[in-house]
Hints:
Structural class: alpha/beta
Helix content: 25-40%
Strand content: 15-25%
CATH architecture of the largest domain: Alpha-Beta Barrel
CATH topology of the largest domain: nicotinate phosphoribosyltransferase
Number of domains: 2
Number of helices: 17
Shape: elongated
Amino acid sequence: MESDDQLALLTDLYQLTMAQAYFQNARMEPATFSLFIRAYPPNRGYFVSAGLKDVVEFLEGFSFDSISLDYLHSLGLFADDFLDFLKNLRFSGEVWALPEGRLFFKDEPVIEVTAPIVEAQIVETFIINQINLQSLIATKASRCIHAAPGRAVVDFSLRRTHGIDAGMKVARSSYLAGFAGTSNVRAGLRYGIPVVGTMAHSFVSSHESEIDAFRSFVKSFPNNSILLIDTYDTIAGARNAVQVGQEMAARGQRLQGVRIDSGDLADLARRVRKIFDAADMKDVKIVGSGGLDEFDLAEFSAAHVPYDSYGVGTKMGVSADAPWFDIAYKLVEYDGRPVLKLSTGKVSWPGKKQVYRLRDGEGRLTSDCVTRREENIPGAEPLLKKVMAQGKTAAPPPSLEESRKLFQEEFSRLPEAVKSIRDPAPYKVEFSAALKKLREQVARQAGGAA
Length: 450
């Protein structure tokens, strides 16, 4: 199992080779880097901010231990004076960032890091790694929640996520974006997320008969009695569950629900619902699972398929339809001088920035405006907050529950057309006249045209 040791080495080699070149050429002035997403993947109209907590904790504890330094020495690439410098290197900079749970849009800065350039350069890889994965999953999870209004959705993805860290971060990010819980027990301990789960097909098939398996399970868990009914034949399984539910009722207990994990999920849910309703067991819930994502949930909702909740696994946990973001961390200022990138299709915005959010009279989100850091837009909300100063946390971070509530409030104010599961409407993002002027000036000085 991976440990959290040597996290300073969780970087690309070229970050360290550049760092030595900066160091040996005495280029140590403050630099500002801006992190943003260049474009929307298909069917995305917004993003959900997640991962900042891990970034701040990493920066606060940033250091190279003796094992890390010995390894770098063994590579034969780095000079002794640079390795001595790394021995005492700590992050000493300032971070402005979008709080977790806030919505953001393409080309908007999510994090801006200002620090001596060696510090700000080396931490790039870790920051992108954390923000990319966690915002990717939070965005996917929010779409699942939106597609299943009024129904609880639970994270079942751990066995299919891309490793241990991903499994943990998927549980946290999906909960931040509205999921009701997770099957990941370690995430329940680490993050205080409700844990959910009952039985697998192996439990049923280990018994001589399906009904024996059901009886055995409810004997142990009368208050967590959700039975998996599709191991052999879903309709026969539903009838067995009815019988067990009736036996429980005679003991003063109640069958809570059944889960369907395979087959024609829409048709089976309707048929199973009729079986329980006919047995006067209308309070028994039906849980759907098995390769679901927001596209399936939206179809079920539109067709009024009678599921009460869903377990969503693989396709959410790897964001199957959009497994990566075009995320970048670009230098925008060095030694007080604004800079930009002019590569074709990748022109950046120079200087330190702020993002302002505008709402209508009823509180609905209408547009954002990206400005220079020192600008002010009366009546608009500045989104980027100073979260670190002089290498230390500037204020206690919000709890996961607070970030979850922040997301739910803001998401409820986003226009429905922008939330659309397919072909969402664009959200209006503008750039201030002062920022546009700065970009033109810097581009001219660099010999290009923005």
